[in-house]
Amino acid sequence: MFQKKALWQGLTFVCAFLLSVAVITSTVLEANRNAIDNFFGTVSEAMVSEDGETYSTFLPDKEFLNEDGSGNATALIKTAIDIGRRHETEGAVLLKNNGGLPVAKGSKVTLLGARSHRTLINSGMGQKSQGNYITLEQALSATKTDFENTKLDKKEAVNDYDFADLKLNGSGVGAGAGYQLNPTTIAAYEAVSGSLNLQQAANKNYKVNEPSVAELTAAQSSFSESLKSYNDAAIVVVGRGAGESNDYIPGGLDASEKADGITEPLQLTPNEREIIKLATDNFDNVIVLLNNNSAIEVGDLKNDPKIKSILWVGHPGNYGTLGIADILCGNVSPSGSLYDIYATENLSAPAMQNMGDFTWSNIVVDGRTNKWEDGTTVRSKSLKYLMEAEGIYVGYRYYETRYFDSVYNQGNAKSQKGAYASSAGWNYAEEVAYGFGYGLSYSQFDYEIVGEPSLTVKPHEIYADVTVKVTNKGAADAKTSVQLYMHAPYTDYDRQHNVEKSAIQLVGFDKTDVLAKNGGSQTVTIKVDLQNGSVLRCKLAERRRQQRFVHTRKRQILLCGRKRRSRRFEQRARKTGQGRCRRNGLCRKSRSCQGMGLQVRRKRRRRLHHVRRIQKQPKNQQPNRLYRLEQLRRRKDNLSFQKRLG
């Protein structure tokens, strides 16, 4: 009996030992499977496509292969540089240009602003930029990359590349701007940048860290004097970081940088205003580059006649600075459009009335454990909350809708309530610096909607294919974006049910190819989902939430262009007298819009965490019964489909 027990104990020990060895061995082998496969010539895994073809049979394009079939890393890196460069030329937005751009190649240029030397190339969220990059100074002046000295990690640097060999999208454009840059200002920023945190992401106590002119002069005594020798143009770069899990909070500018009337992190700080004034006092041609993602308040720059041009460049990535150089020197014409509205003062937005850093008061913080008063554990992120009472009136939907209501003289849209930048009453032109979708070019374009839209009607689906002819009327080869906006009338049904509806909304867009100057044209077809003109109405009834997508049985108006849309309604409003008035008792203001002047079409509802579509709708509300071809035809008394251009 004793022998059997000992035998079983021995077998148990051996099995446990072998199991432990197997677990450890399998973990080690799995972690090093690639090295093992390379050594033994084995295959541990294979990627198989849907048609059964394995990844091992895939070959890159010939341009990425050497003659012997091996990979050509040099060609691959050149293509990566080209993609980053092209992204910038396509996405940068020209906001202002009174003859400042383009600046001739070889010009003597002075770079100003800390971000001209330490440009923000990526945001503080998602996959960070790594490896080698091209600085703005390199892109504007050099003829070759300097990857040995410009890298974001400690990995071995790759070979340098001649700009002449880096063809933009396969075109003849290769070399950079070839500017002669002021070495004194560059040296000054290099001297002070080591003590400044210039890669700071957004946070609730943001410090811009723009050095003062006095600090720069202390670093280089000839700082101001050097401006005279490089005075063809001054390029001033201002920027703001971006990040995840952090926001710019109202009043969140660091106390050391606040001044009279300057308390917001997205306002220009005193030091930034000082360096811009230095430029306008000493240069005839001043260009401002916006190196940001969040909208900086640039109303003062727009209205300053001494500032000739403003170019939004965003965070250009590792190689996008080459694209900035292409735009500045005229290799290409800018063709981007704003993805957000640039208000003169960001606090004028209804959403900003409830914006802040708020923490639940009834959570007990115990070290790393956060608990409600009843002891229930919550995630650390749940400590924070935010009130979102502005409904759909976010971004351009608020400003365009309020402008529309002011044109029709509805409610208190023209009042001083909610006006931050207007001198008398609420004025769109003063409240908004640059509208959503705005963007200039080195050329001019005409837009023409061709014929009637082609409709595709299916159960619960309806699309319109709209064809637009774009003609380049200017003196530069250029491309442009084509944007379609829909105006849906505010009807009796909307008033009765307190439906929130924007006066105008983007429903489709596309971009042309490069059009030849003086007459080059192209037709683009944009597919518009007309159900985007519907809105969600929900109400609480019989202890259950009911939601449905409501389609207004009225004519929809499509507008085409890149500039401000709402202004095109003025003549129509005054001619037809059509408005968006609401009946007494149905006008309600959301908490965030109290005092903002906008009478919000508010639904009585609690916030929905999960929105469900009601598939079964009354026949009189089914989409395929609401839109008719004749509703899109022009009529003499009321244009139902208007060709509003540019």
Keywords, separated by commas or semicolons:
646 residues; alpha+beta; 4-stranded antiparallel sheet; disordered C terminus
Structure report:
- The protein is of the alpha+beta class and 646 residues long.
- The protein is 22% helix and 17% strand.
- It has helices at 2-31, 33-40, 73-91, 114-117, 136-141, 183-193, 213-219, 270-282, 299-303, 321-329, 396-407, 428-431, 492-496, 569-576, 623-626, and strands spanning 93-97, 108-112, 180-181, 233-239, 286-291, 307-312, 342-343, 358-359, 363-366, 369-372, 377-378, 384-385, 432-434, 445-449, 454-458, 461-472, 481-487, 505-511, 521-529, 535-541, 544-550, 557-560.
- The strands form seven sheets. The protein has a six-stranded mixed β-sheet with strand order 1-6-5-4-2-3. Strands 14, 15, 16 and 19 form a four-stranded antiparallel β-sheet that branches.
- Helix 3 packs across helix 10 (321-329) and helix 6 (183-193) crosses helix 7.
- The longest helix is centred in the N-terminal third of the chain and has 30 residues, at 2-31.
